[in-house]
Amino acid sequence: MTQITGNIVLITGGASGIGKIMGRKSLQRGASHLVIWDVNTVLLEQTIAEFTAAGYAATGYKADIANADEVRQTAALVMQEIGLPAIVINNAGIIVGRLFQEHSYQDIDRTLQINTAGAMYVTRAFLDSFIQRGSGHFVNIASAAGLTPNPRMSVYAASKWAMLGWSESLRLELEQQSKNLHVTTVTPSYIGTGMFAGVKAPLLTPILGPEEISEAIVKAILTNRAIVRKPAVVYLLPLLRGLLPTRMFDLIVGRFFNVYTSMDHFTGRPAAEQPAFTKQPN
Question: 134: left (phi > 0), else alpha (psi -120 to 50), else beta?
């Protein structure tokens, strides 16, 4: 079992939303130090100030995970100044939420870079040290969107399908090398944060409370669960896609469960609150 107590926990996108909640829950469970990476310096400073005022050890680093060089440099700085984390939670992510033809080229690039490549960059930056130590736990926040198509989520879904395949493959690779190297992949449906403002919950798929899903993820770390899917109906998606013809799947999931219209009135976070993106050559 992975221990949070007495260990360093690092969370990307940890200055707000479920990232911040998971950070708080890790500290409450005895994490020795919380390291937060975020591009929003205002929220980052506020969150670190809040945690330190409560008597916890927490440090923030401004880091653009879409930039591989910046990820490597920031990871090296963390290991030098704080130490090697025991748990790394790849939580940072963005969504555009428009029809594909309404995506700009930059929208496509930034979604794939932050949601998929960014998680890979962060993991790669710590992976050699985890393997050398012989222990460590990566948590990758994918999405139920990685299990089903959905209009107005094409690029976001692509980024999460990719993360799901990578994360599960990484888990198998690390399990072959050490019983103490762990990967947990999380595939939640819509979460009630500003990121998914305006969505309509599909039938039998309630909007997840941020506290609820954060608690489930932290508990999954403690028990080394390989997959976390919330709510429970999400477990049906791989089965339905495997058994049903495509048009029948579309009918049941799209029309009956109303998944395919759930993004029709999506607004998301205001543009001013969206993460900055400054991709540079690697």
Answer: left
